[in-house]
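From the pipeline queue, job 12 of 40. The input is one protein chain; the requested action is below.

Action: predict structure.
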Amino acid sequence: MLNRDYRAELIRKYARSPEDDELLARLLDKVDAWERTGLMQTTRFLSERDRLCCEPVLRALDAPGLFWGGYKEAERVLLILPAQWQDPENISLWPDSPVSVLRAEYRAGENLSHRDFLGALMGLGIERDHVGDIIPGETHCDIVLTREIAPYVLQNLSSAGRTSLQLREVAEAEAKEAAFRLLRDTVATLRLDAVVGAGFALSREKASSAIRAGKVAVNGLECLKPDKTVEAGSRISLRGSGKIELSEVGGLSRKGRLQIVIKRFI
């Protein structure tokens, strides 16, 4: 069992907010239970930021945690501490996997969105942290859930909006690249406020204010520094406005400004 003082030290070192305190306390409880029983332990679904908060604690404890969200590219994932007999390489084949993937099928042309399915699930009284990624397509949507609530959803989720659904369980979610549009712009510098301004059509002043207000995250971590340098490949989210990726950084324009390409996710 983890020493109380060491627990407090880990939380103090890696938590950045009161919510992180609670997250890491729950994680340490899971590690304690795993060490005591040897049985699989799992959290509910974590955001990208939650995952980044947990990873250094797992490394400090040398705990064999793995993250799984129903497919390899999942954004929302469970943290799983596997039992000794469970093979991490074949997690989608585990009969006792804590993740379930339901495929909701419907007629082509219905144009159902992520919001339609999330709203339908919330309408059933399901808590958000029981739900992983939701991947809508033309004729079906893969919904990743904790195993414990999957039977309830199978029995009760019959529609999204006004569209009827047919549900069945599948082994693994079908990953789709998120829809986006490309934006080409120039910036004086790769400062965060400049990239946020270009990606979300904001003035530099409004972008800086949003960053200082804690509304911007870079690769899942909140950033309060408008002058932070952004690297190509970085994903930036602005609360209430979505997510962008600094896809490419090119050469200088005729006016001496950096040419950039941004993916604005739809």
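Job complete. The helical segments are 4-14, 18-37, 48-61, 114-123, 150-156, 192-200, 204-212.
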